[in-house]
Specification:
Length: about 100
């Protein structure tokens, strides 16, 4: 945080919400992204889902908003996260986008 002003003007960074020092994100009014279980949770939390990183990369087009990433990758067994991920995998497997 001490050297944040030393970053180049074209350097874009977004913090990851859900860590040990989330207080610094809010204290310094930084942009953040949060992993959510589905698009409905994102909508409920007033976050735009960023599937392509365009929202993160181009704040001049989308505004300096916080974003959501839909849960991805393997998750610990028998957790809410693993159930959400399995639901997404089944939906993709049964879709025409194989």
């Amino acid at each position: 945080m001490k050297r944040i002003k030393d970053l180049p003007a074209n350097f874009r960074y977004i913090c990851s919400l859900g860590g040990f020092r989330d207080d610094l994100i809010f204290e310094n009014k930084l942009r953040y992204s949060k992993v959510v279980y589905n698009k409905y949770q994102a909508r409920k939390e007033n976050l735009k889902v960023d599937n392509t990183d365009h929202i993160a990369a181009f704040p001049e087009l989308y505004g300096k908003c916080n974003t959501a990433l839909i849960i991805h990758g393997s998750q610990p067994k028998n957790t809410i996260a693993s159930k959400a991920w399995e639901k997404i995998r089944r939906r993709v497997k049964n879709s025409k986008w194989k």
